[in-house]
Write a structure and sequence with these properties.
The complex is a heterodimer. Chain A is α/β, with parallel strands linked by helices. Chain A has a single domain (17-251), classed as Rossmann fold (3-Layer(aba) Sandwich), CATH 3.40.50.970. Chain A is built from eleven helices and eight strands. In chain A, helix 4 (92-98) packs across helix 5 and helix 5 (100-108) packs across helix 6. Chain B is an alpha/beta fold. Chain B folds into four domains: 2-156, Pyruvate-ferredoxin oxidoreductase, PFOR, domain III (Pyruvate-ferredoxin Oxidoreductase, domain 3, 3-Layer(aba) Sandwich); 171-351, Thiamin diphosphate (ThDP)-binding fold, Pyr/PP domains (Rossmann fold); 358-428, no CATH class; 431-533, Rossmann fold (3-Layer(aba) Sandwich). Chain B contains 20 helices and 20 strands. In chain B, strand 19 (486-490), helix 19 (496-505) and strand 20 (509-514) form a beta-alpha-beta unit. In chain B, helix 7 crosses helix 8. Classes of the chains: A alpha/beta, B alpha/beta. At the A-B interface, strand 2, helix 3, helix 5, helix 10 and helix 11 of A face helix 7, helix 9, helix 10, helix 12 and strand 14 of B. Strand 2 of chain A pairs parallel with strand 14 (388-390) of chain B.
Chain lengths: 278, 534
């Protein structure tokens, strides 16, 4: 079996939460292969930011996209060939700022994809500005007196928008995170994982998350219960909050069709076009 | 009125005649002033004529706007419920129509009845047409049509004796032609966000989804449109997108991504008057410079612009093939005047290109393999090989790099395509030349049709040179004209096409005939302008 690593030099800061995400994802791929989802059928994308460097470190096919556009990129891949399992890695500025419309619409149309949100609460690669998910008062180079905006709650937005699988994980709990990733990728429909990602250079939250996360004892049974849990502030629950079955976008669009596999021949197209052209 | 116009065109088509139909409508849903102009001939006809033999006005506003467009032997119809004793023939459209439940739609039926009467179509044949074209409330429609027919019969019967043409041809709008041409050329998926005058490409393709096994998606915005198209290309689908200036501006970020990832994506840019929202339902050629230069960074862009509905068919297939052969984004540039006008066409599908890229055969795979012509073979997932497309500068495998030698090498690799495509285009028809002798007229896009028709009308001897490809610009075909005095004709205040000729081919215009009021040239008006300068 080929390695899941590439020769790319890893340039994340030592101790970055992204290492834990990368490791959990590699373990998830191995588990998925055990379950019959071959890595050839997995394609990835990523936005732009520290999170996105994962694209270079994974020996898996995909398209390293633009800031916020990865969510649209992978939908295009799946629409062309629905055999593919499509996964994108997004940062909080990426998916909840620049690409927010794509994220909300992907959830709204229950697009069969997985969005892994590296939520570190900061634009790290561009030297520490506040993000859509940063707490009010975040002091960065663009908000030296502190950000005056309240943060968005990514999971609450996704629930409201129509996501059919919502979870939160923490790289400090590797086995738990791996399990969530496997289930999210197996899920038919839009799956969203918010990962609480410590970032040592700008927002070192290792200690905070170790003390304040707790694994959900059981999966919430309803939308309302899920919403209550994703909004909790006393503790940060991690685990799967919500999981329902709904028809996916491509199934609704063209059923069992596959545009690249079932492409209609040139001759047949000519024959069918005759009614308009003669 | 648009429906009545297409029924009228169909009447001429049934008689083997050629038709050009121009629909002029305002950016609103109902009301306002909308009209269609149909010109017909037994030869190739390239434009509508505002000067008309028969003008049918359903309200006062129309009559006031169009009365002076009547030809000296023509006839004008007005609504006698709104106007008393005007020049022409008064018809009580309103008082008769109000007897029926769907009274507004009946005006169109009335217009068809008047046309039918004026060209000697019998009442029986008219009723067959009404049955076929207006099946909803068919009895009411027939009653109304017969009333109008009888009413105008004494003055109008067979007033215009028209001869039959050689054969029945199909009629298409430019956007239908682009859509069908793309299907014939191998299109698999289309992404579009509604924007006039490109929307009807989306609508045409959406209506053909099941028949041709296409995936047609209307996502949240134009940014999603182009990024989804790039994702689809990564998975092996022939993808096309379409918009007008404002929507295409939103795609410019993704256009550059296609340049870097070497993603084959064909973009239709149908121009309307700008800047900004401009004049949504009218025509202009003001986005030429935008099309030539869109997208940040240095990469190969292909831009081509068809002159007619027929050329749009072949060119959309050819462009699809080109963007796949050269793995780069391309623009099929057009205008509202072509997109939404209808023409009778003769299309031979066998002459259509089929998008055929260079595929990886076997062995280890490098997405950005540096080859002699800069074109790296394609491979699509699922595959044992890892396929990485990358928006960052990258090495041959597609891994991000900041290494100066690699940056240089990959720039050089992509630039080889810029060189290679010139040799390739030299084998294609990149410039149309019409006529020989007389002064030289340079024009492009659908303005070419206006010029062709103006020369016919004015009996002017001139040579028209129309570059089909605008980037790369076919200078090899144009060198012979560089010391000649030429006339340029375009729909642009600043003369963007005229500047392009000078910059790329050192062709200097001595007279620029331009127009920028949102309307295409009328052949009579244009013939006069051409005569003034030759």
């Amino acid at each position: 079996m080929n390695t899941l690593d590439t020769y790319a030099e890893n340039t994340w800061c030592p101790g970055c939460g992204n290492f834990g995400i990368l490791n959990a994802f590699k373990k998830a791929i191995v588990k998925l292969e055990e379950k019959g989802i071959n890595r050839e059928y997995i394609v990835i994308s990523a936005g732009i930011g520290c999170h996105a460097k994962i694209f270079d470190y994974l020996n898996i096919s995909g398209l390293y996209s633009l800031h916020g556009r990865d969510i649209a990129t992978i939908q295009g891949m799946k629409i062309a060939n629905p055999e593919l399992n499509v996964i994108t890695f997004s940062g909080d500025g990426n998916a909840m700022g620049e690409g927010l419309a794509h994220t909300i619409f992907a959830a709204k149309r229950n697009f069969d994809m997985t969005l892994i949100l590296h939520n570190n609460g900061v634009y790290a690669l561009t030297t520490g500005q506040y993000t859509p998910l940063s707490e009010k008062g975040w002091k960065g180079p663009s908000t030296p007196k502190g950000s005056v905006e309240e943060p968005l709650n990514a999971l609450a937005i996704m629930l409201e928008a129509g996501a059919t699988f919502i979870a939160r994980g923490f790289p400090g709990k590797q086995a738990h995170l791996t399990d969530i990733m496997v289930k999210a990728i197996e899920h038919k429909g839009f799956s969203f994982i918010e990962i609480l990602q410590p970032t040592v250079a700008y927002n070192d939250t290792w200690q905070f998350y170790r003390e304040n996360t707790e694994i959900l004892e059981k999966e919430p049974k309803s939308f309302d219960e899920a919403m209550k849990n994703v909004k909790r502030k006393d503790k940060l629950p991690i685990g799967i909050f919500y999981r329902i079955k709904k028809p996916t976008f491509h199934e609704e669009l063209y059923g069992n069709w596959n545009p690249v596999r079932n492409r209609i021949s040139r001759e047949k197209r000519f024959q069918l076009l005759k009614q308009y052209l003669t | 009125m648009k429906k009545a116009a297409s029924v009228a065109s169909q009447i001429f088509i049934e008689r083997g005649r050629q038709v050009f139909q121009m629909d002029d409508y305002m950016s609103l849903i109902r009301g306002g002033h909308n009209f269609s102009v149909i010109s017909t001939a037994t030869r190739d006809i390239y434009s509508h004529y505002m000067k008309a033999d028969l003008i049918i006005n359903s309200d006062k506003r129309s009559y006031e706007m169009h009365a002076d467009e009547l030809d000296k032997n023509g006839l004008i119809i007005y609504n006698s419920d709104e106007i008393d004793n005007a020049e022409g023939i008064g018809v009580p459209f309103y008082s008769e129509a109000k007897k029926f439940p769907a009274k507004n739609l009946l005006y169109g039926v009335g217009a068809v009845a008047i046309l039918a009467c004026s060209i000697g179509i019998s009442k029986n044949d008219l009723n067959e047409i009404i049955k076929r074209e207006y099946p909803h409330f068919v009895e009411d429609n027939i009653s109304f049509a017969n009333f109008i027919y009888d009413y105008v019969f004494p003055k109008l019967n067979n007033k215009f004796e028209i001869e039959n043409g050689d054969k029945k041809r199909p009629i298409l709008t430019g956007n239908q032609s682009i859509a069908f041409g793309a299907i014939a050329g191998g299109l698999d998926v289309y992404f579009g966000y509604p924007m006039t005058p490109a929307s009807s490409i989306l609508h045409t393709l959406a209506s053909q989804t099941d028949k041709f096994g296409l995936a047609i998606v209307h996502p949240e915005n134009e940014i999603a449109v182009i990024n989804m198209a790039i994702g689809s290309a990564f998975a092996g689908a022939k993808a096309m997108v379409g918009s007008s200036g404002g929507g295409f501006a939103l795609m410019s970020e993704g256009f550059s991504l296609a340049g870097m990832t070497e993603a084959p994506v064909l973009c239709v840019l149908s121009m309307r008057p700008g800047p900004a929202t401009g004049v949504p339902t009218y025509t202009e050629q003001g986005d030429l410079n935008f099309a030539l230069n869109v997208g940040h960074g240095e990469f190969l862009r292909i831009v081509a612009c068809p002159c007619s509905v027929k050329e749009a068919f072949y060119l959309s297939a050819e462009m699809l093939d080109l963007v796949w052969k050269f793995q780069t984004p391309g623009i099929l540039l057009t205008e509202k005047h072509l997109s939404e006008s209808s023409m009778t066409v003769d299309i031979n599908m066998e002459n259509t290109k089929w998008a055929e890229p260079k595929y990886h055969k076997n062995g280890n795979y490098k997405r950005y393999l540096d080859t002699e012509d800069g074109i790296s073979p394609l491979l699509f997932p699922p595959s044992k090989n890892v396929i990485k497309w990358n928006s960052y500068e990258h090495d041959e495998l597609g891994i991000t790099t900041e290494n100066p030698e690699l940056i240089t090498k990959m720039h050089n690799k992509r630039y080889k395509k810029d060189m290679h495509i010139i040799d390739f285009l030299k084998q294609l028809k990149t410039v149309n030349v019409y006529g020989n002798g007389g002064p030289l007229i340079f024009t492009y896009g659908s303005t070419t049709m206006s010029v062709l028709e103006a020369l016919h009308y004015g009996d002017i001897e001139a040579t028209i040179i129309q570059p089909i490809y605008l980037r790369p610009f076919p200078v090899w075909e144009l060198e012979r004209y560089k010391d000649e005095p030429v006339i340029t004709i375009e729909l642009s205040k600043m003369g963007q096409f005229t500047s392009l000729l000078k910059e790329k081919a050192n062709i200097k215009s001595k007279n620029l005939i331009n127009k920028y009021d949102g309307r295409p040239f009328d052949p009579i008006e244009l013939a006069k302008k051409i005569k003034e300068v030759i």
